[in-house]
Amino acid sequence: MKLHFPLRLLAAASLAAASFLAQAADLTVAYQTTVDPAKVAQADGSYEKATQASINWRKFDNGADVIAAIASGDVQIGYLGSSPLTAAVTRKVPVETFLIATQIGAAEALVARDGSGINTPQDLVGKKIAVPFVSTGHYSLLAALKHWNIDPAKVQVLNLAPPAIIAAWKRGDIDATYVWDPALGVAKENGKVLITSGELAKSGAPTFDAWIVRKDFAQKHPEIVSAFAKVTLDAYADYRKDPQAWLANPGNVDKLVKLSGAKAGDIPLLLQGNVYPLAADQVASLGAPTTKAITDTAVFLKEQGKVEAVLPDYAPYVSARFISN
C-alpha cells in the first residue's frame, strides 16, 4: 500500500530540514590582527568552502575579549594567545586547544619611545608602559621585568587595548608598550625595540597563539573543526614551502595588510619572526609540550596574582584529534 503525503507537507519538511542543516553549520569565529599566512585563506573564503559552513568572522583586539565571547556562547572558535588561554582554562572555561597558530617571535615586542629617557631596561623604572592585561604581551612584559630583576610595582603598567595604545602613543601619554601589530608598527616608527617575544622565549618565557573551540561545538561538529585546521595548515605549508616566493605575490601581502592593519613593509619581518607549525609539528606539540607550556604559564600567572590557583592537569584542554597528517 502506498502512502501519499500532501505536497505542501513534504515541502515544509524539506525546508525545515534544510533550515536545520544550515543553522547547524553556522558558526562565529573570533580572529585578531596578528600577521600569519592563514589570513590569505580567510580573505579568499577558503574556510567557508572547506567547512561548508556560513562563517561570521569577528575581529577582536585581545584574547580576554575572545574568551568572554566564547564563554558566553557567542563565539564557537577563537584565536588567542597562550596567556589568556591559560587564564581561561584555569577558570575551567569549556574549550579545547586544537591548533597552535604560531610560536611568537618578533611579532610582539617591548618598544620604548624615542626621547622617553629609556635607553636600558633599568630606565623603565617609574615609566608608563601600556599593554593589554592578561594578553601574551602582558605575560611577556612581566617575564621581561623579572628577567631584568625589575620590581613590577616600580613601573606604571597601564591596561590598554591596542587601539587605545595607538592613540596614547600618538598623544605622547605613554613611554613604552608591549604589543603586536598594528600598534607595534606605530610604536616602532619613533621607538626602540628593547626585547622581542622570540628573545624572551630563549630565556625561558615562550609564548604562542592558538586556535580554540568550544567543547560542545567540537562534539557536534568535529568535521568542521578538522576542516578548519586543515585550511590553516595548508596555508602554513604554502608559505613555508618558499617564503620569498610567497611574499613576492602582492596579493598575499595585500590580504595580510587588510586583515591585520600592519604595513606592507613590515610583513616580511613579522612573518619571519614567528614559527608556523605544520601538521607533524602540531601532532607532536598538542600533547605534553603544550600542556606543560600552559602549566608553566599558569604558575607564573599565579605568582603575579592573575589567577587564584593552578589546575592539577591541563591535558583536557588540549587535543590533537582534529589534525590529520
Write the layout of secondary structure elements.
Elements: H1 7-25, E1 27-31, H2 38-44, H3 46-51, E2 55-59, H4 63-72, E3 77-81, H5 82-90, E4 95-103, E5 108-113, E6 128-131, H6 136-147, E7 156-159, H7 162-171, E8 176-180, H8 183-189, E9 191-196, H9 197-202, E10 208-214, H10 215-220, H11 222-241, H12 243-248, H13 250-260, H14 267-272, H15 279-285, H16 288-303
Parallel strand pairs: 1-2, 1-3, 6-7, 6-8
Antiparallel strand pairs: 3-10, 4-10, 5-8, 5-9
Helix pairs in contact: 2-11, 5-16
Query: Order of strands across the biggest sheet?
Result: 2-1-3-10-4
**What percent strand?**
15-25%
Low-confidence stretches: 1-24
Instruction: Kindly provide the radius of gyration, computed on alpha-carbon positions and rounded to a whole number of angstroms.
Output: 22 Å
User: How is the biggest beta sheet arranged?
Assistant: 5 strands, mixed
Q: Secondary-structure element sequence? A: HEHHEHEHEEEHEHEHEHEHHHHHHH
Provide the structure class.
alpha/beta
List keywords for this structure.
alpha/beta; disordered N terminus; Peri-bd_TauA; 16 helices; single chain; SsuA/THI5; 325 residues; five-stranded mixed β-sheet
Quick take:
By secondary structure, the chain is of the alpha/beta class. Helices cover 49% and strands 17% of the residues.
Can you give a write-up of this model?
This protein has helices at residues 7-25, 38-44, 46-51, 63-72, 82-90, 136-147, 162-171, 183-189, 197-202, 215-220, 222-241, 243-248, 250-260, 267-272, 279-285, 288-303, and strands at residues 27-31, 55-59, 77-81, 95-103, 108-113, 128-131, 156-159, 176-180, 191-196, 208-214. It has 325 residues and is of the alpha/beta class. α2 (38-44) packs across α11 (222-241) and α5 crosses α16 (288-303). Residues 26-243 form the Solute-binding protein family 3/N-terminal domain. Keywords: Signal.
